[in-house]
Amino acid sequence: MSAGSATLEHELASTRRLLWGEHVKEDVFRRWSQGFQFSTDEPSALIQLEGGPCAAIAPVQGFLLKILLSETPGHSFQDLTSEKCNSLLVRAVCTIISQCLVSKYNVAVYRKNDTEANTSAGNNVSVEEQSCDAIDHFHRRIEVHSFQTLSEVEAFYTRNIRILKDKYGVLLLLYSVILSKGVSTVEAELAELSDPLIHSTYGYGSQGLINLMLTGRAVAHVWDHEQVVGGLRLRGIERQNDIGFLTIMEHMQYCTVGSFYKNPKHPVWVLASETHLTVLFSLERRLAAPETAGESAERIFRSFDPEGNNFIPSAALQDVLCAADLVSEPEYVELMRRKLDSENLGIILLSAFMDEFFPGCERGAPDTFTLHHYNGLLRSSPGGRVVYRTGRAALLECPMRAATTDPMLTCLQTKWPSIDVVWDDGQSPSLN
C-alpha cells in the first residue's frame, strides 16, 4: 500500500534536505547511485564502485557478517551460494531498519520507466534522466510501501531483491531508514549539527549517518552516553551495540570511542580512516566478551601513557584512580603514591599498578587470534579483487603504539594497545 501522496512528497523533500542539504554536486549523487553488488571473488563481500557510499555499504557488510558468523561458525566463505548471500543481504538490511524502533516500516522503491525496465541491471542512464537533474529524476520516481511487521519487510525484499541490487539500491536503503524512523526524529537527534548527512562536495557520510546505520540513532558522537562540553550536553552511544566501531581519528585525538563501540556483542567492527570505512571481523567469540575490571583499568592507565612507556607520572595517579572508579581520596592516593613509587622517581609502572589493584588479572580476550579484513572499494583492493584479507594477531606484553606507522595497526591499537598483526600476504590492508 502506497503512502499518501501529499505526505509522501513532504517527507521525501525533507529527507532530501536532511541527506544532501540544499545543493548537491551531480558527481556526488552519481557516486552514491549504486546497488548492493557482491564480489565475484568473495561471494559474501559487497563491492563499492567509487568513494562515498561506504557509510551505507560498510554497516550493511558488518551486519551481514554478524549474521553469517552467528549462524555458520567455521563455515567456508567460498561455499556460499548466491541465494544464501542475497538472503544475508536482506536480513542485514532489515536489521538496520529494525534498530530505528519504529511503529511502521516505510520501504522506498525506485519505479523504473520503460527504458530502464528493459535493462537487466537498471544501471543505464535513461533519456528522461539525461534531460533533467539526476536527483530530481530519482525523487520523482520514488514510491514508498508501508508494512506493519519486519517479517513483511523481509518477505517484500526477498521477492523484490532487485530493489537492493539495482542502480539506486544503496540510496533506497538510506531513504527507507530515514522514512521509517521519521524525518523529525532524525532531525532531533542531529540537533547539534547543521550539516547534511552526506557531504555535498566530497560525498562522504557524516558520523551521524554512520551512527544511524550502526545503532539506529543519528547522534553525532562516539563516546558512551552523554558528555557535557562547554555547557552543552552532547549525546553519544547509549548501549552496547551488535557490531562495533573503531577509528584512526581517536589515535589523532580528534575523538574518544567509548566502550560500547569498542566492545560490541559480536566480533565485528567498522573501521574508519579519515575518508573511508572498512570492516574487521573474527571467528573468535572471546573478542566480543565485555572488558574485565582489570582490562578496563589497564586501558585507562595506558590512556595516561600516550607514548607507550608502560609508566605514568606519579602525579597522575589520582586521575587514573578516579577514571577507573577506584578509591581516589587524597590521603589514600598519597599512601598509594609512596608505595608504588617507593624510590621517589616520579613515575608509577603499569606492572606495579596492576599487581597492587588487580593481582592475577586475566584477559578476557585470548593472547593470539585470527582477524579478517574487508575493504569493498575496488581501487583499494590488490588486483581489483574484493576479498577478505586474513591476519594472525597477538597481544604483546608491551604496547607498540610509539613505534608503528601502519594506519591499520594504529587504528587497531585504539582498542588493543599491545596488538601486532602479521597478514598472510605480507602486506597490511588499506583503510582507505
Topology:
Layout: H1 5-20, H2 26-32, E1 37-38, E2 46-47, H3 54-71, H4 82-98, E3 105-110, H5 114-117, H6 127-130, H7 134-140, E4 142-147, H8 150-159, H9 162-165, H10 169-181, H11 183-189, H12 207-215, E5 226-229, E6 232-235, E7 244-247, H13 248-251, H14 259-262, E8 268-272, E9 277-281, H15 293-303, E10 311-313, H16 317-323, H17 330-340, E11 347-349, H18 350-357, E12 368-374, E13 389-395, H19 407-412, E14 419-423
Parallel strand pairs: 7-8
Antiparallel strand pairs: 1-2, 3-4, 5-6, 8-9, 9-12, 10-11, 12-13, 13-14
Helix pairs in contact: 3-4, 3-12, 4-8
Question: If you had to describe this structure to a student in words, what would you say it looks like?
Answer:
There is one protein chain. The protein is α+β, with helices and mostly antiparallel strands and 432 residues long. It is 39% helix and 15% strand. It is built from 19 helices and 14 strands. The strands form 5 sheets. Strands 7-8-9-12-13-14 form a 6-stranded mixed β-sheet. It has a two-stranded antiparallel ribbon with strand order 1-2. The protein has a two-stranded antiparallel ribbon with strand order 3-4. A hairpin with a 4-residue loop joins strand 8 (268-272) and strand 9. Helix 4 (82-98) packs antiparallel against helix 8 (150-159). The radius of gyration is 24 Å and the shape is globular.
